[in-house]
Design a protein that fits this description.
10 strands, D-Maltodextrin-Binding Protein, domain 2, 2 domains, elongated
Length: 264
């Protein structure tokens, strides 16, 4: 082969190598939380309503098993507080709210990536200490003299639902405390500080060692939809939509149903 031919062949090989490199990456870095080929890894940070604590903790472990290399961390609190944190720039990948109203706070601020999807529903019960020492059988019993009641604050989804149920029953009562999330309201019953509290059915079921959930018909007038969405500035751009999709999958829906959430 002549020297000119060798130079031509070498130039062709260099050009092909350059095309191969360009085809692999296009000059862009892989998305954070992804491997560059759509696989999920890294930390997925989920802001979720306090009433999702038990079920989402389990779902998070299942997600990690389904996506080796991923880690799910949670910030559980009242939905209104979480929405405010997100709108103030708190780093999060996913928001799961206990009510549409608090989700709207996030979407109207332009912080959601796509349209929120409802993944579960929840209903209230009257939580009383084991044995029901005050003999509470319905909402009207909460107004009896000496019966101390804890409610969630009105801006919290469980508080809004409680107000709707009480209004539907025509019951007016003054709680001895207003809590910032459902876990706080439930804790007052567990500690014996109140005789009853209006909490979600799922929270009462998770605390059956300490409390009993008393069903009441007016709760059907205050069923909460739970929406979930990936966030626009999610640090884990691959992990956020993957977690949202997983929550809506059959395995996760089975976990939620076992916890007492209503299906879609």
């Amino acid at each position: 082969m002549s020297a000119r031919a060798r130079r031509t062949a070498l130039a062709a090989l260099v050009a092909l190598a350059g095309l191969a490199v360009a085809g692999c990456g296009g000059g862009d870095d892989p998305a954070p939380g992804g491997s560059g080929d759509g696989r999920v890894n890294g930390t997925v940070t989920v802001f979720a309503a306090a009433s999702l604590t038990e079920s989402f903790t389990r779902i998070g472990r299942d997600f990690e098993a389904a996506y080796p290399g991923s880690t799910v961390t949670f910030n559980f609190a009242g939905s209104s507080a979480l929405a405010n944190q997100i709108n103030q720039g708190a780093p999060a990948d996913v928001f799961a709210s206990a009510a549409a109203r608090n989700m709207t706070t996030v979407t109207e601020a332009g912080d959601a990536d796509g349209t929120p999807a409802t993944f579960a529903r929840n209903q209230l019960v009257i939580a009383v200490p084991r044995g029901n020492p005050a003999g509470v059988t319905g909402l009207a019993d909460l107004t009896r003299p000496g019966v101390k009641v804890a409610l969630c604050a009105d801006q919290v989804p469980c508080g809004t639902a409680a107000r709707s149920a009480l209004d539907a029953a025509g019951v007016a009562l003054t709680p001895v405390t207003l809590e910032q999330d459902v876990k706080g309201a439930l804790a007052k019953v567990k500690l014996g500080e109140v005789d009853a509290s209006l909490v979600y059915r799922t929270d009462a079921r998770a605390a059956t060692a300490d409390v009993t959930g008393v069903e009441f018909p007016e709760s059907a007038r205050a069923v909460n939809d739970y929406p979930i969405v990936a966030l626009k500035d999610a640090p884990n751009r691959a992990g956020a939509p993957a977690f949202v999709a997983y929550v809506r999958s059959a395995p996760a829906q089975a976990v939620l149903a076992e916890a007492g959430f209503q299906g879609l």
